[in-house]
Amino acid sequence: QGKFTLLRDTRTDGSFLVHHFLSFYLRAGCKVCFVALLQSFSHYNIVAQKLGVSLTAAKEQGQLVFLEGLKSCLDLVFGEEEEQPGQPRPLQFVSESSPSLKALFDFVRTSLTPASGDSWKSPVLLVDDLGVLLSLGAAPVAVLDFIHYCRVAVCSQLKGNIVVLVHSNEESEDEENELVVNSLCHHSDLILWVEGLATGFCKDVHGQIKIIRRVSLELTAEQDLVQTYQYKIQDRNVTFFARGLSAAVL
Amino acid sequence: LVFTEEDKYGLYSNLLFKYFLAEGVVCGHELFVASAKEHPDNILKELPAPLLDDTYKNELGEEATAIKSEDFQDSMKIAWRYQNLPKMEASPTTSTKFGHYYDISKTMSPELFPSIKWHSFYLPEELSLQPQMKTCNMNSAYARLLQSIQRIVSQEGFDGSDPQKKQKNILRIGIQSLGSLLWGDDICSNDTPEDVHSLTKFLYVLRGLLRKSLSACIITVPAHLIQNKAIMERVTNLSDMVVGLESFIGSERETNPLYKDYHGLVHVHQIPRLNSLICDVSDTKDLAFRLKRKLFTIE
């Protein structure tokens, strides 16, 4: 509880981890706020069903608060003037000249603060993916501030967890993104770093995952624990195995 | 959202663009064509002519046999282990018919057009109109284009807003040379562009429109002109499919014997990963293209 997990991908797509955590926390009975910036609700719903969870049901029961970024942005850009004046829109920073992510943070905090009658377990904030905020005009500092505020609210005050996906490329020229990613790495409790194989595409091994437990943050003079596995993604499942030991090889 | 990085002179990406639109005409889809440099009416006059079933077999048959006989003569010396692996399909088999084939030496006859509904957006003609949406600090040309697309999507019921509409159809959107100076964007002409976010904001809103409607979109961009690579990284993330065309014209590869039969390379940077856990599973990644008199092939 109270942990910040960073999902990071390089040269491949790490969104399968997002699908995993989403269904994992929902099955565990946690209240989840999913800031889904890159894909539509139906995309996540279809995959979640393959993993045995219905997002529609979770939403109806109030267990899942789903912010569909694409739809929210469309409403902002093409919608009529304030239907509910005084109610800020989560993505309103897109139309502001000096963008601040406060409205987005307020949305997250409101979504996860337990309402009376809620019997869900600890809250979880899930973000896919953080880099989209930069593409929409938020400054790196604003993004880091947003994460910081979320940590205080969700991890410290509400004793919940946060899972965030970021992309990073080696030799990336996107300095803003690299700044955000590196900063988040320093402050994460757990990093799941997914990388495409350096040797190129392979049918049986889709990539490699490094699990980094930031034990060094606990100031006990211990070093971070790093475990590396390879993986293969299937229709409803992902299999992990030790390096060089994929089923195709054995 | 198919994002195409143009080859240096835009020759081949233009061809792909026209194939996309031609397929829309043949399938009876509705078209939306946007350009800042060429009037869409002119673009639509130059679409390749579709090949009807029997003529197609003959046309392609000649090309296909030519390819096969060359191959058999060269037996592999160093890579002998690969000799027995099945070759990638040199010509499409008739049993799996997906899409149509075209003869690029002929233009599509205007008779096919009256049955098609199409909309055009030619920037120089649209500048007089004021956008009525929140421009969100976006380049005004992009804002106007978004507004135009949104209007068509909602008026023609592609977003399901008109339940009375009996027959559902697909809207094919083609946007030419986005990001170029003609659109008022300086990302292609400036190392440190004034406004780095216009293009990515545009793509995000467009992505939202595509997701909520029955539409597909191809965008071509003169990516080789974009100095700021960070933008290309962000754009890749916001697109479903990203393909780059690299022509050999004027490059040292033109005289490389390895590429003697081809005119350029196709780089598939990203393929769509929708509604599924599975990622990239294609077998072949090294693709090249060649332009013959009647056919543009990717092998």
UniProtKB/TrEMBL annotation, chain A:
UniProt entry keywords in alphabetical sequence: Cytoplasm, Nucleus, tRNA processing
Entry's Gene Ontology cellular component terms: cytoplasm; elongator holoenzyme complex; nucleus
Family: Belongs to the ELP6 family.
PANTHER family: ELONGATOR COMPLEX PROTEIN 6 (PTHR16184:SF6)
Pathway(s) of this molecule: tRNA modification; 5-methoxycarbonylmethyl-2-thiouridine-tRNA biosynthesis
Pfam family, one: ELP6
A biological process from GO: tRNA wobble uridine modification
Origin species: Apaloderma vittatum (Bar-tailed trogon)
Protein name per the record: Elongator complex protein 6
Cellular location(s): Cytoplasm; Nucleus
UniProtKB/TrEMBL annotation, chain B:
CDD domains: Elp4
Subcellular location: Cytoplasm; Nucleus
Superkingdom of source: Eukaryota
Major localization class: cytoplasm
InterPro entries in the record: Elongator_complex_protein_4, P-loop_NTPase
Keywords from the named record: Cytoplasm, Nucleus, tRNA processing
Gene Ontology terms: biological process: tRNA wobble uridine modification
Keyword Protease among record annotations: no
One CC-aspect GO term: elongator holoenzyme complex
Biochemical pathway: tRNA modification; 5-methoxycarbonylmethyl-2-thiouridine-tRNA biosynthesis
Any matching Pfam family: PAXNEB
Purpose: Component of the elongator complex which is required for multiple tRNA modifications, including mcm5U (5-methoxycarbonylmethyl uridine), mcm5s2U (5-methoxycarbonylmethyl-2-thiouridine), and ncm5U (5-carbamoylmethyl uridine). The elongator complex catalyzes the formation of carboxymethyluridine in the wobble base at position 34 in tRNAs.
Family (UniProt): Belongs to the ELP4 family.
Record protein name field: Elongator complex protein 4
